[in-house]
């Protein structure tokens, strides 16, 4: 891996857990411990991480911004359960789309373990870093403006390019879902991207952990019925009945 690729991989790992260890990073990235240490020190000088004994974590400034915006990575086990459920909707030879978001980054981690004959179109930089670990997967990163905090591309160029694709399935990582308000999100620049994918894809699947159920974010993306299937880790039968009555299909 080049230095920039290692930096992106380390930051992606820090999206998924509180800290990273030098030894684990060296093994995963197939590089030396000394190289990882130099990388972490350089990243600390750039303000990207806080270097601690044996590894690194996010600096308080980035952690607080992440928490403020609602993007602090929590409930990783629930996200992974949802991602594993979503595997049933992916088939060899498919063209699929992933938008930005930590759940789709976890989904990408599961995809590379199970598939090779796939084409994946995405604006999710963190997911691309994961997908690069399986070169048999044809990954298309859509350009546009770069959102460093969300690790994604966005804007008119991004939406226009995505509109050229008609994927078999679009997997959407969304911030909140409510049986009245439908699907909502605080990432205003991401809403147009999700709406574009939902318009063009043959099947639209929201992949969300159950902590997002019954929540409302800043702006509506679309009503419950606009998504073909909502995939979640585990919810009660009572909740499932209420949301299905409102127009959702839940797996």
Write up this protein.
There is one protein chain. The protein is 41% helix and 20% strand. It has two domains: 3-68, Arc Repressor Mutant, subunit A (Orthogonal Bundle); 76-245, 3-Layer(aba) Sandwich (Rossmann fold), CATH 3.40.50.1360. The chain is built from ten helices and 14 strands. A six-stranded parallel beta sheet has the order 6-5-4-9-12-14, sandwiched between helices. The protein has a three-stranded antiparallel beta sheet with strand order 1-3-2. By secondary structure, the chain is of the alpha/beta class. Helix 2 (22-29) packs across helix 3. It has helices at residues 3-16, 22-29, 33-45, 60-68, 76-86, 102-114, 125-131, 156-162, 188-200, 237-245, and strands at residues 19-21, 50-52, 55-57, 95-98, 119-122, 138-141, 145-147, 152-154, 169-172, 176-178, 182-185, 203-207, 219-222, 229-231. A hairpin with a 3-residue loop joins strand 10 and strand 11. The chain starts with a helix and ends in a 6-residue tail after the last helix. The model is unreliable at 62-73 (pLDDT under 50).
In short:
With 251 residues, this protein is of the alpha/beta class. Helix content is 41%, strand content 20%.
């Amino acid at each position: 891996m080049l230095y920039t690729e290692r930096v992106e991989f380390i930051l992606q790992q820090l999206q998924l857990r509180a800290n990273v260890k030098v030894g684990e990073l060296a093994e995963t990235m197939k590089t030396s411990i000394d190289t990882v240490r130099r990388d972490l020190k350089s990243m600390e000088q750039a303000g990207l991480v806080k270097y601690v004994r044996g590894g690194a974590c996010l600096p308080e400034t980035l952690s607080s911004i992440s928490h403020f915006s609602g993007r602090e990575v929590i409930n990783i086990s629930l996200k992974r359960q949802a991602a594993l459920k979503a595997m049933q909707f992916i088939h060899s030879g498919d063209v699929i789309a992933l938008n930005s978001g930590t759940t789709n980054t976890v989904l990408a981690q599961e995809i590379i373990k199970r598939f090779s004959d796939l084409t994946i179109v995405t604006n999710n930089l963190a997911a691309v870093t994961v997908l690069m670990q399986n070169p048999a997967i044809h990954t298309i990163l859509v350009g546009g403006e770069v959102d460093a905090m969300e690790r994604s591309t966005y804007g008119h160029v991004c939406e226009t390019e995505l509109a050229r694709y008609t994927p078999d399935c679009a997997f959407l990582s969304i911030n909140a879902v409510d049986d009245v308000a439908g699907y909502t999100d605080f990432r205003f620049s991401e809403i147009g991207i999700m709406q574009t994918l939902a318009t063009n894809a043959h099947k639209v699947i929201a992949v969300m952990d159950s902590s997002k159920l019954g929540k409302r974010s800043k702006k509506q993306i679309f009503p419950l019925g606009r998504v073909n299937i909502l995939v979640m880790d585990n919810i009660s039968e009572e909740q499932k009945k209420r949301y299905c009555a409102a127009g959702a299909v839940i797996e």
